[in-house]
Amino acid sequence: MKEYRGIGIMSGTSLDGLDLAYCIFRYNDNHWSYAIEKAETIAYSPAWKDRLLYLPKADAATIQATDIDLGKYIGNAVHEFIERHALSVDFVASHGHTIFHDPSRKITLQVGNGECIAAICGLTV
After folding, report:
1. How far apart are CA 90 and CA 118, in angstroms?
2. Where are the domains of the chain?
3. Which of 21, 79, 18 has its CA nearest to residue 48?
4. How far apart are the first and last CA of the chain?
5. Model-level pTM?
6. Which fold has domain 2-121?
7. Which H or E run contains 90?
8. Strands across the sheet containing 2-11
């Protein structure tokens, strides 16, 4: 049996916070199974809520800066989550925070830089 331990991250347009889930994936006899072992939502501060709320109307430089800053924020949140719960983690999976989505044109844009998350956590993202 193979086992993989990961942290999944989601940040939605509701802006309620950053969702973190520690999951264990198992592969045995050609079958995948999973279990969610720990999960929590880290509420966004009013400043982060405002920043993310107005991001779709921002210029490119502001979007890029927020991508990096949010990546650092997520990286620190994941690092603290791992430390707080003494978790053994193989990887991090982050969807990022969607700031623009137009399915009819097949266009979407997320922020939350994966390289920044990886640099802080020391894990594959």
Report:
1. 12
2. 2-121
3. 18
4. 23
5. 0.92
6. Nucleotidyltransferase; domain 5 (3.30.420)
7. none
8. 31-43, 17-28, 2-11, 91-102, 107-111
